[in-house]
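Write out this protein's structure.
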Amino acid sequence: MAMKATLEQIAEVRAGHPFRGSIKEVSSGNGFVIQTRDQDADGQVAWDSLVCTEVSGRKEPDWLKDGNVIFSARGSRNLASLISGIGRPTVCSPHFFVLEVFDVYQVLPSFLAWQLNQIKLQKYFHQCAEGSAQVSIKKSELEKAPLTIPPIEQQKLIVGLADSALREKQVHRKLIALRQQEIDAVAKQLLQ
């Protein structure tokens, strides 16, 4: 049976790395940073486009780790992304919140990311967003996000279905791009 919970009951919520000013590319930097431009409309992170920079502060950075979920709290898209297979020191900008599930045997981080991206919660985030020029979600509002947590086996099934659907979507996009290339090549040849 599914249980109802708020985000703060199942995960710790903390702000992304507090960069001062703009994030500058430093080829010999000590880490990489995920910015809002690195998150696509499906909540996928474009790992190859991350900027290498010098990540510093008064204390050791809270490096992202596998199983974290990042949530874009500023702008018109409030999407969650699962962090997995990082392989290098990475933080996210302060435009994100980092979510760390308390008990991964009760709630899969991948399921949490999936649920945060669903219509019901997207409507919730839209309603509690503040600001006129730059809308954002407050940490307190994110922590109150209402969740439904089914048994772990059901979470695994849902995540599996969502992953399959995403792969299909990506294949369709590639096919559409290839078809457009064919049409462009025919047009170029014909109109020369």
